[in-house]
Amino acid sequence: MIKLSEEVIDFFKRQSFIIVVTRDAKGSLHCSCKGIVKINRDGKVYLLDLYKKRTFENLKNDKNISIIAVDEHKFIGYCLKGRAQIISAQDFDQELNLAWEESITKRITQRVIRNLKQESGHSSHPEASFPRPQYLILMDINEVVDLTPHHLK
Question: What's the rounded Cα separation, in Å, for the pair 17 and 103?
């Protein structure tokens, strides 16, 4: 397992979503948008997945997972590679439940603020109608790839 720097943790905490990459039974890559519920220095990331669809099926067969986030304006980004575990909803502890609720509240708040600034976006607040997650993905990170070009560091 790898220790994450505060820089990487803070970067991922600022993201409204990340791209999750898994591999299906035929070896094809699948990308989907997910939210981070919790990320810690010990190299563990808890990912929100509201629907038991492709990502869930892929992880049952292949535990390898990558998550990617970029900040186009700052021209930085990271890819975290690792192994996934599925945590069913009945196994969530109080801390995970609170973290999930805080992440949804943060998303709704950010949307309201952007709407008040009159930035065009979705006319309603889709996050408010999210179902409770049936499971979370626990990712143990074993590699951090800095996507920032070397000449810009």
Answer: 10
Cβ neighbours of residue 35 closer than 8 Å, sequence gap 6 or more? 16, 17, 18, 47, 48, 103, 107
**For the chain, counts of helices (H) and of strands (E):** 3, 6
E-only strand ranges, 24-96:
29-40, 44-49, 64-71, 76-88
pLDDT in tens, 93-128: 777 767 777 777 777 777 677 777 776 665 666 665
Residue 7 to residue 19: CA distance in whole angstroms: 19
The number of beta carbons lying within 10 Å of the beta carbon of residue 55 is: 23
Q: Where would I find the H helices in 52-149?
A: 54-61, 94-116
Residue 6 burial (CB count, 10 A): 8
- CATH superfamily for 6-147 is Electron Transport, Fmn-binding Protein; Chain A (2.30.110.10)
pLDDT in tens, 46-87: 998 888 899 999 999 999 999 999 999 889 999 999 999 998
